[in-house]
What does this fold into?
Amino acid sequence: MSVLLSTFAERIVHWQLDHGRQHLPWQHTTDPYRIWLSEIMLQQTQVSTVLGYYERFLNRFPTVQDLAAAEQDEVMPYWAGLGYYARARNLHKCAQVVQNQYQGRFPTQSQVLATLPGIGPSTAAAIAAFSVGERAPIMDGNVKRVFCRYFGIYGATHLRATEKQLWDLAHQAVALAPADLNMSAYTQGQMDLGAQVCSRGQPACERCPLQTGCFALEHHVQTELPTPKPRLKQAERSCQMLIWQQGNRILVEQRPDTGIWGGMLSLPQFDTPAQLEQFMLGQGTPVSSAQKMAEFTHVFSHFKLHITPWWIQAPAALYEPKPDELWLDSQQIATAALPAPVTKILEGILATGLWD
Ligand code: SF4
It folds into this structure.
């Protein structure tokens, strides 16, 4: 095993320098703030999606001080559409901790980084490796796949025993590598290899620098590794969303900070049609005056939400917004902190030409 381990990191470095990604906007900087932002955005999100968000975010919040000084409401629109909104709330919280406890100087040591909100051990190691070359190994989803296949590690990767085995190997790979190992290229290389070569489904082993000694290639078990997580039946929920249009404005409400779409703006939402009907009757408007639109499903990581939108135009009774509600006009869709399915509904309404 130690023979396989001793050349592991170097082979990845050589491959990364020749074939890996070199021109992503967060590469070639050692600014931990910029690296941190890219790492958080890239969690559960593809590079192609992150590119536009990253640039817009940095234009508005070029330094950690700018981010810390902003209100959370100002930050959310720059995240809207990326999903996993707890990340955006933690991002903001983390900037404030850096500002208050570290005098606005972003830490670069992995052990310190891992104590900050929203930064796990793998993200902490990546920031430390990219910013100061710390010899700290990473272990994200892509890297787990490479390690499981190369070293022949069985067992679902969310299990503590499997995860410990993977982290131990990751530490050994760094410990056995030469003292002058290019940590930035090694870290990026593992990410690139997992995303571009040792991908899910059928990996491109013919292009892989780890062919020699790869357990999965040798035993033809690439599709068996990593061991899949046992499939649980995904929970399903449904809700009714109300598009309450008054003139050229549509009612939205601020969601509580916790729970799905925490802190974002959304359409008034009801668990059942009966609750929606009750609300509308309370406004002196029968539900029959609303147009029921086609149901669609939004998939979260842990459940499916079936959404039925109801659209009512120019109700006779004028609605007075409560403190957590406000009116949105059509110009504000692009900049408001709306979750993706709400943007989709409102863009559908815009397309009818009956909201301008
Ligand atoms: S040889 Fe194939 S299975 Fe093994 S690490 Fe490379 S791409 Fe993955």
Observations:
- The chain is about 45% helix and 10% strand.
- The mean pLDDT is 92.
- The chain has two domains: 2-224, 235-351.
- Residues 2-19 form the longest helix (18 residues).
